[in-house]
Amino acid sequence: MSSPFSINGGAAVAMVGKDCVAIACDLRLGLQALTVSNNFPKIFQYGDNVFLGLTGLATDVSTVSDLFRYKVNMYRLREERHIAPKTFANLVSSSLYERRFGPYFVSPVVAGLEPKTGAPFICGFDSIGCIDFAKDFIVSGTASEQLFGMCESLWEPDMVYLDAFFVMRGCLLIMMPEPRCALRDHITGAPQRRRPRCSLRLGRPRLHHREGQGHKAVAEGAAGLEGFRSGGGHRGSEGTNISVMAERAIYGVVTIGHSETPWSRPHQETSHQAQAPWELWQ
Amino acid sequence: MADRYSFSLTTFSPSGKLVQIEYALNAVNQGVTALGIKATNGIVLATEKKSSSPLADPSSLSKISLITPNIGMVYSGMGPDYRVLVDRARKVSHTGYKRIYNEYPPTRILVQDVARVMQEATQSGGVRPYGVSLLVAGWDEGILPEDEEGGEQKEGEKGEEGEKKAGGKTGGILKGGPMLYQVDPSGSYFPWKATAIGKSATTAKTFLEKRYTEGLELEDAVHIALLTLKETIEGEMNGETIEIGIVGPPADHLLGVEGVEGAVGPRFRKLTPQEIEDYLTNL
């Protein structure tokens, strides 16, 4: 319990889909059993389609995310281009290994799309920077066992944007402290189901405990939320509605980089997209 | 009066000059001519290998050096200074880049790093500037999608009637392609399509201006390089007295291994004396 990796809690997951990646984390900041905040994001963006998830000791999450903001901004100024996910992953690795004998207590996850080919890229790291390249998914943090279970049962190759989103959403629900029913349902009932939204619904009634904070989080929202909402009614209208958004906002952030949505709606670009390469992030 | 400002480089002369840098340039301008030409699909670096005595073994002399698998360098001026800079360039490409990003630096980044080394020698106490100018040739992989690049190329061809195929379309960190830089003792650097440094630089540049065309292929560039060298060379031209380095397609035969997936050979390589002889017979 006194491991610095589990004091504040938190988990992140990244996975590969067809021409897309998804990365998600919870928003909880805890002190062992005490919940201090429900608005502590652990995913950071460092370029067009380059994301870093950081779980572990919260102070190191802040320090390391700021350190990479600095390093990536310097990279962009020096090279007049955005950093590619693979390059960024190597930067993360070498930066963490610099602290080999006094490491940051974080377990990073990188997800992104290679700028040249648009190919999805994900990888994870240990706290001293050993890279774990993966074709499918990467989990990290205090719920990593549960996330492994979810990913093992739900991940399949070449998931399209929406499927990837729902699997990620399932992953998010599973790592939350409260909706255990969702965990049960997934482990016992629906490993083969392509779209897990029905089973996920089981968790929903209990999620309304934090409605107030949830809607606040929606307002402060994560990038990509709008794009999802507008496409929500596509496959029949079952399963997707605003309260689903609220669930997500309470419990996590999903950010998806992709070239095209399954309903061929153009991806909602983040405001950073149009930036000149030498302009800084944040 | 002039020699009062000649020894400490951290001192400007009243006219605003750092005369040691000018002396360094004089050293360069007495050096053996070296030249570089950028083509659409590569770059050629060429120079004369002059030995002071007929007893010298020319095969042991080398003026064109590989820095990274895709970047090569040639100089004009003082040989020993060049060797130091080659070592520094090789070192900094690893410490300052490959060990951090696990990839080799783009040409411009390497050029900036070498230029910084040369600039520091103009502002530090107890040192003199490097007595060399460098030509650095490299190939950048680029990060923009290939199809976008192709589309741009097409547009460029249409806009300028296919003649300016290479105009602004090759080279650079974003699009990728060949880049040719000159670095001077002051630490300033310039990108070129084709240029020459050293004793007959002016003559050679005039010649290159006449011969250079947009959309040049690497083979033509080697040809032009030899023709230019012929104009300025003092001794005999053969495979032993000419040195040529090219940046071209990946040379997988230089990898030393076979059948490794994803392994790409170096783009920079030096031509063998035999290859140079072959070009010379076709001149």
From TrEMBL, chain A:
Chief subcellular location: cytoplasm
GO cellular component: cytoplasm; nucleus; proteasome core complex, beta-subunit complex
Family matches, as Gene3D superfamilies: Glutamine Phosphoribosylpyrophosphate, subunit 1, domain 1 (3.60.20.10)
Family matches, as InterPro entries: Ntn_hydrolases_N (IPR029055), Proteasome_beta_3 (IPR033811), Proteasome_bsu_CS (IPR016050), Proteasome_sua/b (IPR001353), Proteasome_suB-type (IPR023333)
Superkingdom of origin: Eukaryota
Localization, UniProt: Cytoplasm; Nucleus
Gene Ontology BP, a term: proteasome-mediated ubiquitin-dependent protein catabolic process
Annotated spans, Disordered: 261-282
This protein's UniProt keywords: Cytoplasm, Nucleus, Proteasome
Job of this protein: Component of the proteasome, a multicatalytic proteinase complex which is characterized by its ability to cleave peptides with Arg, Phe, Tyr, Leu, and Glu adjacent to the leaving group at neutral or slightly basic pH. The proteasome has an ATP-dependent proteolytic activity.
Similarity comment: Belongs to the peptidase T1B family.
Quaternary organization: Component of the proteasome complex.
Full protein name: Proteasome subunit beta
Protein species of origin: Trichocladium antarcticum
Source species taxonomy: Eukaryota, Fungi, Dikarya, Ascomycota, Pezizomycotina
TrEMBL record, chain B:
Keywords, in A-Z order: Cytoplasm, Nucleus, Proteasome
Xref: Gene3D superfamilies: Glutamine Phosphoribosylpyrophosphate, subunit 1, domain 1 (3.60.20.10)
Domain Proteasome alpha-type subunits intervals: 5-27
CDD domains: proteasome_alpha_type_2
Cellular component GO terms held in the UniProt record: cytoplasm; nucleus; proteasome core complex, alpha-subunit complex
Basic and acidic residues biased stretches: 151-166
Positions of the UniProt region annotated as Disordered: 144-171
Predominant subcellular localization, coarse grouping: cytoplasm
One Pfam family in the UniProt entry: Proteasome
Localization of this protein: Cytoplasm; Nucleus
Stored InterPro entries: Ntn_hydrolases_N, Proteasome_alpha, Proteasome_alpha-type, Proteasome_asu_N, Proteasome_sua/b
Gene Ontology biological process terms, A to Z: ubiquitin-dependent protein catabolic process
Summary of subunit composition and partner proteins: The 26S proteasome consists of a 20S proteasome core and two 19S regulatory subunits.
Family label: Belongs to the peptidase T1A family.
Protein name (Swiss-Prot/TrEMBL): Proteasome subunit alpha type
Organism, as annotated: Trichocladium antarcticum
Lineage: Eukaryota, Fungi, Dikarya, Ascomycota, Pezizomycotina
